[in-house]
From TrEMBL:
Gene3D superfamilies: 3.30.70.260, 6.10.250.640
Gene Ontology MF terms: low-density lipoprotein particle receptor binding
Presence of keyword Endoplasmic reticulum: yes
Keyword annotations: Chaperone, Endoplasmic reticulum, Signal, Wnt signaling pathway
Originating organism: Pandion haliaetus
Location of region: Disordered: 23-45, 143-188
Name of protein: LRP chaperone MESD
A GO biological-process term: Wnt signaling pathway
Presence of keyword Signal: yes
Subcellular location: Endoplasmic reticulum
Gene that encodes it: Mesd
Length: 188
């Protein structure tokens, strides 16, 4: 049994203990918990299309905060980028999408979504805008309507990485052939 102490004699440790006791019995609704303490939403595997990896991401990001990078085409000033992305944000707001916008460069902005499940619908809207050069979502770059033709091809297929890998493989094979120690080891 704890001693009864006058409330005026409580120190910081006593107040912390009192707060813990008070919060222990407190029922906090699930929606009021911070995102990292909420239980993950159950995933319905029947809705997953194995041919589309985006469907898996869409279901796993549902209810979680997600950020996407948007690049404005041309050479806009920061003020122009602010105006253009503000129009996009307003259109998304009118379509009932909760999106916050942060300008991070003269032609780049971050769109933060409270519910990541809608990210791919918002991405589809953005890439169909005339001044949208590209949208980066979950590490994947999607070219927009405003992208130059060579950028559209480069972003879709990523041939540079494949070419670099092939060149590296060729170099490593030629090094193996020229290296005498390697050749002797292979003979053994």
């Amino acid at each position: 049994p704890a001693k009864k102490k006058d409330i005026r004699d409580y120190n910081d440790a006593d107040m912390a203990r009192l707060l813990e006791q008070w919060e222990k019995d407190d029922d906090i609704e699930e929606g009021d918990l911070p995102e990292h303490k909420r239980p993950p939403a159950p995933i319905d595997f029947s809705k997953i299309d194995p041919g589309k990896p985006e469907s898996i991401l869409k279901l796993t990001k549902k209810g979680k905060t997600l950020m996407m990078f948007v690049t404005v085409s041309g050479n806009p000033t920061e003020k122009e980028t602010e105006e253009i992305t503000s129009l996009w944000q307003g259109s998304l707001f009118n379509a009932n999408y909760d999106v916050q916008r942060f300008i991070v460069g003269s032609n780049r902005a971050i769109f933060m979504l409270r519910d990541g499940g809608y990210a791919w619908e918002i991405k589809d809207f953005l890439i169909n805008q005339e001044r949208c050069a590209d949208v980066t979502l979950e590490g994947q770059v999607y070219p927009g309507k405003g992208a130059e033709e060579n950028e559209k091809v480069k972003n879709k297929t990523k041939p540079e990485k494949a070419k670099k890998k092939k060149d590296a493989d060729k170099k490593s094979n030629s090094i193996k052939e020229d290296n005498r120690a390697t050749k002797q080891r292979e003979d053994l």
